[in-house]
Amino acid sequence: MTAAVDREIGVAVCFVVRIDDADLGVFNSCDGLGCEVVLEQREEGGNNGHVWQLPTRLKYSTVKLSRPVTADSAKVLRWFAGLAHGITRKTATIEARTLDGTLVTSWALQGVVPVRWTGPQLSPDSPKVATETLELAHHGFLGGAGA
Q1: Which GO molecular function entries does the Swiss-Prot or TrEMBL record give (predicted)?
Q2: Which CATH number goes with the domain that contains 39?
Q3: pLDDT tens per residue, range 58-107
Q4: 123 burial class (0-12, 13-18, 19+ CB within 10 angstroms)?
């Protein structure tokens, strides 16, 4: 591979997350960006060797973002505290960036609502890094992915 191609491959990336105008900070793990076509199977009478696979709708998986607990954790808690007044669907942007801040690609999610926030498990028996996870549901992607 050439050096120019090596720089464009996002080997080590972090994920910058924004919900409308709220900056939720940087996460080091993003799981669940994807969708699938739900198929309905129909058997045709008299045709025993074939089952029709009919596409019906798109189904989007929830997105799980994780990171070690940092000062940015307060941003997520403030966002959740604001949900006590009512939950409205938002638009989220997830940007994959290299460690030097170069944008690799981004995804815009429409109709975002929070599903779950899980804080760190603090135990003297387990000296692991304290992490938090934010899970978001959405109604699909806006536009195409890309930088």
Answers
A1: structural molecule activity
A2: 2.30.110
A3: 999 999 999 999 999 999 988 888 888 888 999 999 999 998 889 999 99
A4: exposed
